[in-house]
Amino acid sequence: MKQRREAIVNRDIFDLPELLEAHRLPLRIDVVEKDEVFDDVGSLDAELAISYPEPREQSITFEITVKGQGREIRKKSLAHVTVVACLDKGIRYVAGLNPNSWLSVRFDAGFEEEIPHLLAVELVEITAQAIRFRILEGRYKGELAQISNSPRRDYLRQEVGVRREAAQMVLRSGVQRLQIGGVGEFSVMVDPRNPIPRGTYRVEIPDEPHDKGAPYLDRAKYARTWFRIGDQGDRYLHTGEVTVGCATVNAVESWDEICKVLLRSRLDSQAVGTLEVLP
Q1: Distance (Å, rounded) from C-alpha 271 to C-alpha 138?
Q2: pTM for the full model?
Q3: CB-based contacts of 73: which residues, under 8 Å, 6+ apart?
Q4: Residue 85 pairs with which residues in a beta bridge?
Q5: How many CB atoms lie within 10 A of CB 96?
Q6: Where would I find the beta strands (DSSP E) of 34-142?
Q7: How many H-runs (helices) and E-runs (strands) does the chain carry?
Q8: Beta pairing class for 199-204 and 23-33
């Protein structure tokens, strides 16, 4: 029997998406030391007690007696196996998409739609085939949906510091300039025949991919990502070279920079910030 050997396995053995109280997980641990003639083996039935909600990482080390076989039948060794339980709130963000930044998901209600980059979801169930989750914000807030587990699981990521404060924007229609706090000032187009009335508006989380932005995808990855101005109607903040009642950023190459900020910003679960429209 070989002594003082260490093996790091680092394998997931159990996943419980909705742990709402203390949980005791039954374990069967088998240790096998491979040998040319006889394998040395040891087994242990145990329980892993998981507390909730703290601490976030809990570990326990089990001691297993490994018995020799064949000519080493009288020999024994001890194996120490450490099992770690990691708790998190199950919050994930849509990310890692290329090239169009929208994730296609199947809703429990039976339809398929796309949800935007950095939208927050909460894991509900994970199987070998699918990842099921609840959407926490935006147009489909509260809805249950799923994606296939592999390889698309990489599109739901646990980000640290993914959010920033609500975006503060000012549109000066007369000079056709858009100012975004902490980002900069950009050229915009407004429709003189259908201007946005003066006032302060909520700017919503993107609702769906807008195909009218597709002609600009070679210049802006997020060209199909539009932000509705107000909580109803069809006025949007978007990029392009044509405007019909919207605020259109015609510096198309700047749109990705703007989107990267707005998609991280939150006023609440439905809006990324506010837009003040001045003459």
Answers
A1: 8
A2: 0.75
A3: 67
A4: 58
A5: 13
A6: 40-50, 57-67, 76-86, 91-94, 102-107, 112-116, 120-126, 130-135
A7: 1, 19
A8: unpaired
